[in-house]
Every structure is written in structure tokens, then in C-alpha cells.
Amino acid sequence: MSENKKWTRRAAIGFISGGAGLLALRTDAAIQIQADRGVNLGTTTDTEALLPLIDESVSAEISGFGDETTVYRIAENNVNWDFTDVSLSNIKTESGDDISRGNSPITVSTSGEDVVISCSGSTFSGKYELSFDLKAESEGGQVSVVTDRTAGEPVPIDCTVDADYADVNNYSDNGEGDAEQPGDKARGTVEYPSNIGNNDENFATLNSRNKDGGLKVGFVLPPVSSAEKYVLTVRTKKATGGLVAYIVTGDEDGDEVRLSCNKEIKKNTDEYVIQATNKCAAAGEKISDEKNRNDLFLVFEDGSNGNNRSEIRFIDFQAHES
Q1: Which helix (DSSP H) or strand (DSSP E) does residue 73 occupy?
Q2: Cβ-proximal residues to 281 (8 Å cutoff; 6+ apart), any chain
Q3: What gap in Å lies between CA 210 and CA 233, rounded to an integer?
Q4: How far apart are CA 141 and CA 137, in angstroms?
Q5: How buried is 252 (Cβ within 10 angstroms: 0-12 exposed, 13-18 middle, 19+ buried)?
Q6: Cα separations in angstroms, 191 against 47, 212, 217, 267, 304
Q7: DSSP letter at 152?
Q8: Which of 196, 262, 273, 286 is most buried (most C-beta within 10 Å)?
Q9: Are 209 and 217 in contact, with CB atoms under 8 Å apart?
Q10: What is the pTM of this model?
């Protein structure tokens, strides 16, 4: 006979052999329970007291990129449970629409007794019904429970990022801008950089001069979720000098790594669909790779050595919702 005992959700009652005889436990709240021979878990009349979970979804909320919140925690118990594996099994909007986990910017982690969610991308904003697969073990690992739960209340999640382009670390030019890309290869200057994130009638000015050898400036993009394709939005008042834009990241040495082809920028609003894997990306690189999609830059470049001035009202980069 095996030294371990196992029960499933379909079992109404499980028996664990303890030092004082047989102990009966209701297990309909768990998918699977496994215990070493001789473990005594104590008595209970509560169907969920074996792994007592407190649902914190009624007060859980994520209010911006970098924020986190607790959805479940383990209540006081007599076996010192800790979560050993937690994952998000399903996401639904308030209206009941399923969302692909591959397009989810939500990260699930545990600090031992808590199930914590946070934002790893910038595309979610709304209230979401969250379901989890959970595994917990007792102190010493003698008993383990695998279960699933759906949070009792939809959780407000706002992962959007509003980059502060007035910050010199969020844009790069041949003046004050100090972002990583294009870094020391920047040419030309950016005036009123804070206007590029406001989506109103104000604009940032991109200036290139003949003596600088044309324009090459860049702006930090917010993190995005994993997707097969993305949408780049560039809203302009004026575009000159054969202005183009493309997506890059940086390598370990800070050198530019190309992730997309040139997109010709024209006057007014344009949206450009960019495949995560495309012919212009550096070998083996995809926008959707985790190391890339959290470290993206939009580079503007013109093909003229003359004096040019382009006026950009707004930029945005998001996962494409197919």
C-alpha cells in the first residue's frame, strides 16, 4: 500500500489515519488532498477549514502599473499552510467575456500565505473576474492540497501607464533627453516633450538641423502584454523630412536592438499594426518577449540632412485585441 493517501473533489469524505484512530474530513472544497501516513490534521466541521482561505476580492484593487493587491490569504490554522504554487486559470470581464491569459498583463505570485496579483503590462483597465489554481503545503510538506477558486467579487484593475515625458529619462535627444535609446546616437532635439503623452491639441516639436546629420530621437513606451500583434498610434500636426518611426529595445550593453520596420509618419492620426515577429526585427527577437516588451522605445528618424520640424501630438503602443 502506498505511503501517501489521496482524495478527489468527488469524494464526500476522506479518511486520514492518525495516532488516535481514523479522522473523518469533508473534502468537497478541494480538488486533491495528499498526506503522509500517520499525519493528524485535527477535527473540523467546516468544509473549507482544511485549507481556510479568506477572500479579499471585495477590497482588492490595482490602481496603476507597479501596484499590487492581495486576492486570497490563508486564515489561522493548525498545520501552518503556505502556498507553493499559484496561477491564474481564467479571466473574465464584468460582462462575462473570457480574456486570453496570453494577452493578460496580470502576474500572480505568493508571499507564502497570500495570493498577490500585480501588473506586468499596461493594457488592462476595468473590473475583472479572476479564477485561480492553488497548491498549498503544510509546514514540513507532509500534507498538500490542490484547489481552485474564483474570487467572490470582480477586482478593479488599472494597469495603464502614463509616461511623464517631461522627465528627461523618458525621452532621448541631442539636448537634455537622457533615455537609453537612441542614447549617444541621438540627433536633433525635442521641444515640449511633455505634450506627446497628453492626447490633446498641444504637441512636441522634433527639430533636425543640417549640421546634426538629420533627426534621431526616442521616447520610452509603457510595458505591454504578450500578443501576436500590436498597434502603434502616432497623432501628428506636421511631419517633414520623410519622417519614420520604429520600435527598439536595448541589449545588455545598451546598444539598439531593432524590433520593427520603419513606419512612414504622415499628418494627422495614423494607426499602424505591427506583428510581434516581423522581418525587420533583429535575429531571434520579438516584441512579445518578456525582456523586450517591458523595455520598449519609439524612435523617430528622418531621411533628410536639411533643417526640418515635425510636430507630434500623441504616441501610444498597445497589444492588438483581435
Answers
A1: strand 68-74
A2: 258, 259, 260, 287
A3: 28
A4: 5
A5: exposed
A6: 64, 16, 11, 18, 19
A7: S
A8: 196
A9: no
A10: 0.59
What's the average model confidence in pLDDT over 280-306? 89
Look over the chain and give the mean of its residue pLDDT values, rounded to a whole number.
81
CA 253 from chain centre, in angstroms, equals 25
Domain with CATH 2.60.40.2710 in the chain: 4-158
Return all residues near 151 (Cβ < 8 A) that are at least 6 apart: 55, 57, 60, 71, 72, 129, 130, 131, 132
- pLDDT tens digits for range 30-65: 556 666 655 544 444 343 457 899 999 999 999 876
Judge contact between 246 and 287, C-beta under 8 A.
no
Q: Report d(CA 309, CA 219) in Å as an integer.
A: 17
Neighbours of 162 (CB within 10 A): 11
Helix (H, G, I), strand (E, B) or coil at 183: helix
Please, what CATH class does the domain formed by 4-158 belong to? mainly beta
Q: Report d(CA 319, CA 100) in Å as an integer.
A: 12
Query: Given the DSSP bridges, would you call strands 106-110 and 125-137 parallel, antiparallel or unpaired?
Result: unpaired
d(CA 124, CA 101): 12
123 DSSP β-pair partners: none
pLDDT for res 161: 65
DSSP secondary structure letters along 94-118: TT--B--GGG--EEEEESSSEEEEE
CA atoms within 13 A on the CB side of 230: 31
Residue bearing cell 537634455: 176
User: Which cell numbers in the block locate residue 98?
Assistant: 473570457
231 within 8 A of 320, measured Cβ to Cβ: yes
Give the tens place of pLDDT for each residue, 158-217. 877 667 888 898 999 999 999 999 999 999 999 999 999 888 899 999 999 877 788 999
CATH class for the region spanning 168-319: mainly beta
* More confidently predicted of 102 and 111: 111
